[in-house]
Description:
Layout: H1 3-11, H2 15-21, H3 27-37, H4 44-58, H5 61-73, H6 78-86, H7 94-108, H8 114-148, H9 159-162
Helix pairs in contact: 4-5, 4-6, 4-7, 4-8, 7-8
Amino acid sequence: MSDAEAAQYARLPANLTRALLATGGCTEAFLDLGFALRRTHLSVRHYELAILRVARLSGCAYQRMQHLQPALNAGWSEADIEAIENGDSQRLAAPDAIVLRLVEECVAHPRIPDPIFKRALALLGERGVAELILLTGFYLMTARYLEGLDVELDAQPAARLLSYED
């Protein structure tokens, strides 16, 4: 690794970063956006809900492995995580079910149906909906990248992902 590549890897020492370094110039911007998304107005619980649901819908074991412990740290129980991953919104509190539905629709369709969009807007406000859609899209893109390149699972979650203190 060059010094510049080593500096990017040090930001997030994970196989994802190794794979990003193959792009030649996208690693820094990718990591910048990923870390910026951690500072949205979304609750940590909704942030992790979105990632786990995208991981399941995308069949991305890497994302699940990296975000399972952060989801538990955010207060989701194992039963909650099972409901999130299975899309069982009836087992979640109403606000969480709305977030889950918006994520599912965002993954499935380019345009979110008005009734779901309006419920999410009432819950999260304009900024929260915009942030949730961007977060969902980012993790959908990341899942495609990880799965497309068959990036190997890390031995453990990246320590930087376990806490939200950046």
